[in-house]
Amino acid sequence: MVLDTAKHYPVLLSEIISIITPQHGGTFIDCTFGQGGYTKKILSYKNTQVIALDRDIESKKKADQISNEFSNRFFFRNKKFSQLDDLKIKNEKIRGVIFDLGYSYTQIKDPTKGLSFDSVGDLNMKMGLNDFSAKDAINNLSALELEKIFKFFGEEKEAKKIANQIEIFRKKKEIDTQNLVEIIDKTKKKKKF
């Protein structure tokens, strides 16, 4: 990871802590561990335990650091939160489950993840546990499939035009991050206010 030294601030930390009340102890599940902000705060209270998971393999580094400090009270698995059932948690009184959905600043700024259009890196967006990358999707899915992705997941009004331009461009060469940015910029109508 490029920005290991970048400071990460968990969103709404005090609000989450006031809702889940770890000061009373218990077991908590952090389904989007990331850099461990919520987990560290929860573990600062006695009689707490955290089961954490994250799909991003880079999170394992932070998890190892926390595990060294809280070895009896912290358990990490490199899994998607959709695989929560795979943990087969038994005999635990779960007091709270946390999902902090979205990307962190450090993930966006890491060019190897390919999450930013400002990045020169690969068109990746895999976040660790996917079978295919954004590069695979952009260069192999049909225009109709791309249109659906842009329209329904990106709420993009120009989805069809962008998908068609991608299909035309990739006949010439494989699309990378910079090519995709150019295609989108040229295709989208600029609104004048």
Q: What is the structure about, briefly put?
A:
With 193 residues, the chain is an alpha/beta fold. 37% of the residues lie in helices and 10% in strands.
In CATH terms, what is the architecture of the largest domain?
3-Layer(aba) Sandwich
Task: Return residue spans where pLDDT drops below 50 for at least 5 consecutive residues.
Answer: none
CATH class of the largest domain: Alpha Beta
Task: Report the β-strand fraction as a percent range.
Answer: 5-15%
With strands numbered from the N-terminus, the spatial order across the biggest sheet is 3-2-1-4
Shape: elongated
Q: Number of DSSP helices?
A: 8
Mean of the pLDDT scores? 86
The H-level CATH homologous superfamily of the largest domain, spelled out, is Vaccinia Virus protein VP39
Structural category? alpha/beta
Oligomeric state of the chains present here: single chain
Q: Sketch the topology as an H/E string, one letter per element.
A: HEHEHEEHHHHH
Q: Tell me how many strands there are.
A: 4
The total number of structural domains is: 2
Task: Offer a few descriptive terms.
193 residues; 2 domains; DNA polymerase, domain 1; elongated; single chain; 4-stranded parallel sheet; Rossmann fold; 4 strands; alpha/beta
Report what the structure shows.
With 193 residues, the protein is of the alpha/beta class. The chain has 2 domains: 13-106, 3-Layer(aba) Sandwich (Rossmann fold), CATH 3.40.50.150; 111-187, Orthogonal Bundle (DNA polymerase, domain 1), CATH 1.10.150. Helix content is 37%, strand content 10%. The chain has helices at 13-20, 37-43, 59-69, 105-109, 134-140, 143-153, 159-169, 177-187, and strands at residues 26-30, 48-53, 74-77, 94-98. A 4-stranded parallel sheet has the order 3-2-1-4, covered by helices on one side. The longest helix is centred in the first third of the chain and has 11 residues, at 59-69. The radius of gyration is 20 Å and the shape is elongated. The protein starts with 12 loop residues before the first helix and ends in a 6-residue tail after the last helix. The mean pLDDT is 86.
